[in-house]
Amino acid sequence: MGLSKRSHHVKPRLPDGVRIYAIGDVHGRADLLQSLLTVIDADLRRSRPRRAIHVFLGDYVDRGPDSRGVLDLLIHRMWTHETVCLKGNHEVFMLDVLKDPAKLKDWRQYGGLLTLASYGVTPTLTPTPEEQIELIEKLRDAVPEEHLTFMENLPSSFTCGDFFFVHAGVRPGIPLDQQREQDLLWIRDEFLESNERFGKYVVHGHTPVKAADIRPNRINIDTGAYATGNLTLLTIQGASMLAI
Hints:
- By secondary structure, this protein is an alpha/beta fold.
- The chain has helices at residues 30-47, 67-80, 89-99, 104-109, 112-118, 129-142, 145-152, 181-186, 189-192, 225-228; strands at 18-23, 51-56, 83-85, 157-160, 163-166, 201-204, 213-214, 218-220, 233-237, 240-243.
- The strands form 2 sheets. The protein has a 5-stranded mixed beta sheet with strand order 3-2-1-9-10, covered by helices on one side.
């Protein structure tokens, strides 16, 4: 049952027997991701839920030091656990740069040089257009095919029970099944400032906050891991949510 204005006192719920582990924007912090996966594994051994789903909210690359390591961890996790990896705007931008080296200049503003370095490609401070093409050719050669396939096939949202998982948020007033991907990956103020009930309870990242920001209609679990060293894990079971 979805949330509605009439049922705003009813807590959102997952189906019985389902536990979700949701993780916010990793941004190249493979070390923090590995630590949280260890925490999850310990919890799984202890609690043995009937069905456990890992949900990652996008932005695996850029800003932090080991984007390549993050993608390796996520791909391996998908082999061994029920895992949903959502698309973030940074994955889209990295794929765009691989197609158009002229976007390298813009990618720098997004922390893309650290992603280059994680694949063993070192740019000069102000690469010429010719050097940009050469750098991206080197990156194309360095990125494993499975990393490209992973990024190219990421879904932009995931729904389970009364919860809607997405990278950035949703546009108020638009049904969830009619949202534009541009909004799902990039929206900020219109979504963050809205008190609207969106049809389901939205779990998102994209906009860094000091600690998990729990609102009546949404929760933001992007705690700026690349800068703060704090990567947030949200566990949901039944109507209970716990962010650590």
